[in-house]
From TrEMBL:
The lineage of its organism: Eukaryota, Sar, Alveolata, Dinophyceae, Suessiales. Residues 290-322 are annotated as: Disordered. SUPFAM superfamilies: DNase I-like. It comes from the Eukaryota. InterPro entries: Endo/exonu/phosph_ase_sf. It comes from Durusdinium trenchii. This is Endonuclease/exonuclease/phosphatase domain-containing protein. Gene3D superfamilies: Endonuclease/exonuclease/phosphatase.
Length: 385
């Protein structure tokens, strides 16, 4: 059996640009050219993925796969409390020796320092094939302490157990693959007090699997619990460069690209704000145009005739002081102002469109592949002794 784990997401280097929402906009508009991954992924029985976004879904052709081959969690909620296009997923290859027989979801929550709660949905699947298997692709938050961490993992534990059939003799093996954001040793210590979690064995390469900017450089591995003693052994190999040279080069290219585009992004944001202010000024000038002309000879209109809240030619104070004549309305002044603002609006809109066109064409085309990820793809192969 073979399996695969790959977060497939780059980490933006620490810099003055690493701020919300400017960073989000810069990263969202990167001109990426993705390598063809589908043939590579189709060679495996199962592919477990983390940090799945729309670009990766498109690259893998997920939209054309049915629920018997593609299983995905709900979007995650980041530390700001905002849903983001990032999920975990499992892809079954076209020649996979497993078939999906059941699914379940759970949500792992982690309070943040800002008083908000980060949430990561996970999906477990019951598989039937070479041997019964319950599998989950995981992307966990870094641990904070033993008791709190076991409580954090409780929904994941309950989900995995809910997929275990109750019939005697049909107990499946359990596997959780992905990014644990802590080392195997640290995880073993945290799970030592829980009988369920301490029944697993970890499978990982004997080298770094994640770039140094991640919470843990060896945080990618598999936890596996066999259904019964079977002699099944695992071999794990980390692909891509061990020194993350391609990722370093990719990160430098991303930084250079964003530094080039940042002034244009600021100018576009200022242009957008200017257009919004001009539209607001138009509405306010339209409100200054009288709905009917009121003269001193008209006397004080009744409240049924003119609403003081919506008639700018009448002062609100006039209802308290009916002897005060209304201020003269210079309709030609309002009309001239409105005409000038409309002309300005047209000019701003044309320049805004030109700015968008120029800004959209800026930036270099950045090649994105497995080698340029901040996590190395792990290949797990099982064999019987």
């Amino acid at each position: 059996m073979t399996g695969f784990v790959s977060p497939y997401a780059g980490t933006f280097p620490e810099s003055s640009l690493n701020t919300f929402p400017r960073r989000d906009e810069l990263l969202k508009t990167l001109r990426l050219q993705y390598a063809e991954l589908r043939p590579w992924a189709d060679a495996f029985d199962l592919v477990a993925l983390q940090e799945v976004d729309q670009a990766l879904r498109t690259c893998l052709g997920a939209e054309g796969l049915g629920p018997d081959r593609w299983v995905e969690s709900a979007p995650h909620v980041d530390a700001r409390g905002i849903p983001v296009d990032s999920t975990t997923a499992v892809l079954l290859g076209p020649a996979s020796r497993w078939r999906i027989r059941g699914k379940a979801h759970c949500e792992l929550t982690m309070p943040t320092g800002s008083g908000r709660v980060a949430r990561r949905d996970h999906c477990g699947i019951l598989l039937e094939g070479t041997f019964p298997l319950v599998l989950c692709s995981v992307h966990l938050h870094p641990p904070s302490g033993t008791a709190a961490y076991l409580q954090y993992l409780e929904p994941l534990k309950e989900m995995m157990l809910s997929l275990v059939p109750e019939q005697p003799g049909h107990s499946p093996a359990l596997a959780l693959l992905g990014d644990w954001n802590c080392s195997q040793g640290q995880l073993k210590e945290l799970m030592a007090e829980d009988a369920f979690w301490s029944s697993f064995q970890s499978v990982a390469p004997m080298e770094a699997t994640a770039f140094e900017s991640n919470p843990c450089a060896t945080g990618d591995f598999m936890l596996f619990r066999p259904a019964a003693p079977s002699g099944l052994q695992w071999h794990c190999q980390a692909e891509a460069e061990a020194d993350f040279g391609a990722f370093r080069a990719y990160s430098r290219a991303v930084l250079a690209d964003t530094v080039q585009r940042l002034p244009w992004l600021r100018a576009l944001a200022a242009s957008t704000e200017a257009l919004q202010q001009v539209r607001l000024l138009e509405r306010q000038l339209e409100d200054l145009k009288p709905k009917r002309t009121v003269t001193p000879e008209d006397g004080v209109p009744s409240r049924q005739e003119v609403d003081p809240a919506t008639t700018p030619s009448l002062s609100r104070d006039r209802w308290r002081h009916p002897w005060r004549p209304p201020a003269p309305v210079r309709q030609e002044v309002v009309s001239d102002l409105l005409r000038s603002v409309l002309q300005l609006h047209g000019q701003l809109d044309r320049q805004h469109q030109r700015l968008k066109q120029v800004q959209g064409g800026l930036g270099m085309v950045l090649p994105k592949s497995l080698d340029t990820s901040d996590h190395r793809p792990l290949v797990f192969e099982g064999f019987l002794e």
